[in-house]
Amino acid sequence: MDQSAVKMLFFGDSGNSAQWSDHTVPTVAAEVADGGVAAILHTGDMAYYAKDDGGRMGGLHAEQLSNATGHAVPLMTVPGNGDVFCYRPPGIPVWSACTEDYQRRYIMPGWNRTHSLWSSFSVGLVHVILLDSEARTWCSASQNHTEQREFMEADLSAVDRGTHPWVVAVVHRPLYTSCLNGEEQQMMRDGFADLFERYNVDVVLNGHVHSYERTLAVTGDYNDTTNATVDYAGPDRSVYIRPKYPVHVVAGTAGNGESIDDCSKQADANNWTFSVFRSNDVGYGRLVVPNRTHLQIEFFSVTQDSVLDMFWIQK
Q: Phi then psi for 103, rounded to 5 degrees?
């Protein structure tokens, strides 16, 4: 392995459930204890919901996440809707007031400038940008996402690809998934996709959907097959050779307290060929960069104690 090789674990939508506390937490903690993990990337929804019971739920879930990391590796987070979810009468979302609990619990790089809602860091050969999907949604004033896009543009344009050849984006809501309505995904694509593609982001990690799904390297609107483009190589679609677009990975699989989302029927019914692999198992992802030209991602099922999906990106 290259001296700058790196391994990170990722998952989202953890929650106060037996699947999470009894299975995912000890499995992740054991892998961290074995060594070699540089960071854990949480794709959002640390709590359901963070402000419930006077904030007790947010504190409980933060403690469980600390147990998973063993206080030994950085926990790098993005806010999900469950982390910043609150309303004021008569039911109008108030984004700025709702983010306070998240901002106080999770201190990300540059918090004094962006209040932990969007940030970035580099480790080994990888640059990671952490983004706030909720600044793009119905819950936020438009100027919040304008500020975030300014941050994205400045951050991604400054990445030295000689030093950090791999760029990974983490944002809670997916741009591409078989499970959500078209309006929500289109809103995310309109807010993020152009910059991901312009600055050659390699992988986009998401949560929100309570299952695992991997896409082809995809651009455009998959609801309009004349405008959607996919890119891959290899007969089993497990090797991407110099893809032109990002590969999107949804991993809202940590064991939330709500339900599992089964995307298969929707994907098959709509012939959504961008979707390569789906699983309803509880588990987490491994992202490994062994050198400057290869990146590997695995999805590990804690239910079956085995790797269910694995793919490589080759530059």
A: -65, -35
